[in-house]
Backbone:
């Protein structure tokens, strides 16, 4: 039952220093549901780490714990060997774009800086640069309802990155988009990540997306939510459309898919749908 | 021109019917109520003539209109008195309603504790409370204001409270992640999110403050202490001056309609860029 193959920090790149270590982290909700149980995970600086698993495996809960939006029931989150109080600046991208509908694109991206007391004029260069990075130059004055789903998600990413956080957490950000838009955003996100070298923790239920993007895929299993196995995706960056159609990519997807099926079959107890 | 005709020619019968229907509806929306209104006034006039009804029972529309002009000085100065109470009480209702809603929004406990008081104030008929207010308050204007305020503030309070509490959970998390203070959360997230709800409450409160002002004048006017439109109505009733009574009534209705239209326009202008309710329907 306890198939913890990847308990030790077997980072694919193994380059960067440890940024965050989850040690025996568990989360039990007041309704008795064990969302996470005894999770050990090491995240290194510069990692693009995907949490892949069926619904109900606690991957979103893990992300909320890392963000500090929830506290673990047991275990601890160790930020660079110090206490969890030293959580660095974090950017968060939700499943929905989660924009202020009354504010235009500029004001939405400005918001995190505004909350830190940065004035509009002082923030303008950073906001405009970020909008350029997500290919939204010229849309500063549009309000969210005038934008397509993909563009709204770009605004959301720009907002998360405008403070130049060292960690970007993404909770199934592209799940609601059509495939063509998703591929485009995948490419643009990788480009941004390669330029800035921040750390990404990316929650997804898509094998293909996780393999395309990450250098590490952590497969999780449900009931209770736990780390099932970790895969190193050793394909070199930059990855582009050529990689998407390559035999290497297909083989890696096959491998990840097999592990995911193993994780789903390992689920203890009766099957019901996740929440 | 030819291009449009060519385009019209390519429409299939179903689409053509839809276009016709839309054009008809556009005209009918204005024309139909207007026609029915004119018909009703004409019928009113005819009923007076056919039945030889004396003008102190039911005056003909023309007579009412004439009175509106002849007594304009008297009626409009009274209208001004009523309007002053209406707008002052609406202003106080906005301040009080939003202020209390923000206070309630600070904590669930405050809301749970004090919301029942607001409901008690709302459900007790203002006419029944007035004798009490009459005992405790001396100043005439204050009396009327208090009455109109009690009637008008509740929709604003209850709508704004609902609005402040219906903020998207993810947006709330986003603010928390960025270390927003409670004040920042109120200023940049909860107040703007409550805006459509507040404006909905404001539209109701606008009409209610007029009703509140008139009702308060009625109760106060029975003691001969008021000079608003309501006192003109009471006075005209005593003197069997039905034309003036009708003229005053029409004035009150038009004022109410005007207040509603102005508040609707304000609401539309504020929400037109982002809120579903203000967007043009696109098929």
Residues:
């Amino acid at each position: 039952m306890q198939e913890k193959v990847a308990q030790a920090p077997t980072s694919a790149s193994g380059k960067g220093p440890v940024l965050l270590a989850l040690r025996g982290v568990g989360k039990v909700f007041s309704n008795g549901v064990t969302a996470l149980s005894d999770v050990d995970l090491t995240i290194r600086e510069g990692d693009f780490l995907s949490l892949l698993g069926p619904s109900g495996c606690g991957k979103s809960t893990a992300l909320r714990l890392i963000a500090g939006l929830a506290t673990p029931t047991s275990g601890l989150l160790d930020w660079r060997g110090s206490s969890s109080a030293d959580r660095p600046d974090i950017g968060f991208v939700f499943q929905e774009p989660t924009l202020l509908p009354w504010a235009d694109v500029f004001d939405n991206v400005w918001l995190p800086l505004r909350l830190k007391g940065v004035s509009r004029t002082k923030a303008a260069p950073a906001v405009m640069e970020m909008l350029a990075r997500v290919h939204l130059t010229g849309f500063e004055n549009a309000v969210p309802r005038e934008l397509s789903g993909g563009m709204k998600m770009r605004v959301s990413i720009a907002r998360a990155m405008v403070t130049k956080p060292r960690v970007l957490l993404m909770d199934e950000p592209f799940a609601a988009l059509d495939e063509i838009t998703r591929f485009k955003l995948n490419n643009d996100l990788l480009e941004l990540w390669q330029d800035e070298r921040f750390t990404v923790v990316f929650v997804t239920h898509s094998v293909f997306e996780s393999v395309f993007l990450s250098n590490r895929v952590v497969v999780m299993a449900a009931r209770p939510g736990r780390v099932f196995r970790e895969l190193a995706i050793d394909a070199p960056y930059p990855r582009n459309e050529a990689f998407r159609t390559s035999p290497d990519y297909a083989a890696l997807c096959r491998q990840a898919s097999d592990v995911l099926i193993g994780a789903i079959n390992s689920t203890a107890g009766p099957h019901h749908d996740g929440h | 021109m030819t291009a449009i005709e060519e385009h019209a020619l390519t429409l299939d019968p179903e689409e053509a019917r839809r276009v016709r229907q839309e054009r008809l509806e556009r005209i009918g929306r204005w024309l139909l109520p207007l026609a029915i209104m004119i018909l009703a006034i004409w019928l009113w006039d005819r009923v007076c003539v056919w039945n030889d009804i004396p003008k102190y029972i039911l005056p003909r529309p023309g007579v009412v209109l004439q009175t509106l002009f002849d007594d304009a000085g008297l009626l409009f100065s009274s209208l001004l008195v009523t309007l002053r109470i209406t707008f002052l009480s609406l202003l106080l209702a906005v301040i009080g309603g939003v202020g209390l809603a923000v206070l309630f929004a600070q904590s669930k406990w405050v809301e749970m504790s004090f919301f029942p008081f607001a409901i008690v104030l709302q459900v007790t008929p203002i006419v029944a409370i007035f004798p009490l207010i009459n005992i405790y308050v001396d100043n005439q204007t204050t009396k009327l204001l208090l009455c109109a305020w009690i009637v008008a503030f509740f929709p604003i309070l209850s709508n704004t409270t609902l609005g402040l509490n219906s903020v998207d959970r993810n947006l709330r998390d986003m603010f928390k992640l960025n270390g927003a203070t409670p004040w920042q959360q109120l200023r940049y997230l909860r107040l703007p999110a409550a805006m459509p709800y507040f404006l909905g409450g404001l539209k109701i409160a606008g009409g209610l403050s007029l009703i509140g002002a008139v009702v308060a004048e009625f109760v106060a006017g029975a003691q001969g202490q008021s000079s608003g439109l309501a006192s003109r109505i009471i006075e005209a009733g005593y003197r069997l001056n039905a034309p003036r009574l009708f003229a005053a009534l029409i004035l009150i209705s038009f004022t109410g309609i005007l207040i509603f239209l102005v508040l609707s326009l304000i609401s539309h202008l504020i929400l037109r860029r982002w809120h579903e309710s203000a967007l043009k329907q696109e098929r």
Notes: The two ends of chain B are 25 Å apart (CA to CA). The CA atoms of residues 172 and 178 of chain B lie 10 Å apart.
